[in-house]
Amino acid sequence: PPSSTESVNHSKIEGAKIRSRVHSIIAMKEEGSDICTAAADGSISSVFGLALRSIHEFFEFNDSKKIAGNDAKYFTSFCQRNASQKCVFDSIKLTDEDVEEVLLDIADAHIVLSGINACTFIRELLNWPGVSEAIADIGGWIKVEYFAKMYAECRLHFASPDEKYVMLLENIDKLVRRLHDDAKKLKCVEKECEDSLTKVW
Question: Rounded to the nearest 5 degrees, what angle is found at the Cα of 76, between the Cα atoms of 71 and 80?
């Protein structure tokens, strides 16, 4: 989301009451407290961006695992490499190659669990009392969506692949709707992933 802090290129957006309310929501700051927290606008923007990055990586991973003829929306066959299966069914000494395979499965699981946690964070953040109103008061997501579409249309993800998650912001309503509609499915995927990891250990 656009930062409301002052910078060289952007003038300060007026609306101290809006920012104060958002700060108290995000930082869980008590009303009337003068205690400063690290959750300034720039900080929550960074956390929001990191969450989007995790979601995008999860969605990309999930799409890469789709199999023709399988209508399942989300991949749920975790820790299926041979070495991981050895850990489940046999008590044998693993070779270096086996360990590498297990670590790959763990890395995949990390992408999934991080992505699902990020989905929960964004969904709950945008549902938090006062957040939608504060966003609407500063013009909504119009500018964010405009620049996200420009990023996609100019194919800037080839020049800056680490910022590909920006494309999730082309249609905020669509993203939020997916996070809400898939919440129960994602909970099941999360459990399946955690159970698979537990079996390997």
Answer: 120
CA atoms of 72 and 49, how far apart (whole Å): 28
- In Å, the largest CA–CA distance within the chain is 65
- Are the beta carbons of 199 and 89 closer than 8 angstroms? no
Q: What is the pLDDT of residues 160-176, one digit of tens each?
A: 888 899 999 999 999 99
- Backbone phi, psi, residue 36, to 5°: -80, 145
Rounded to two decimals, the pTM is 0.74
**Single-letter amino acid, residue 170:** E
pLDDT in tens, 93-128: 778 888 899 999 999 999 999 999 999 999 999 999
And the tokens for 192? 């399946």
How many residues belong to the chain?
201
Rg from Cα positions in the chain: 21
pLDDT over threshold 70, residue 134: yes
Give yes or no for residue 5 having a pLDDT over 80. Answer: no
The DSSP output letter for 72 is: -
How far apart (Å, rounded) are the C-alpha atoms in residues 3 and 111?
28
DSSP-assigned states of every residue in 27-50? HTPPTT-----S--HHHHHHHHHH
Closest to 22 (Cα-Cα) out of 133, 118, 114 = 133
Which tokens belong to 65?
């695992």
Contact 54, 71 (CB under 8 A): no
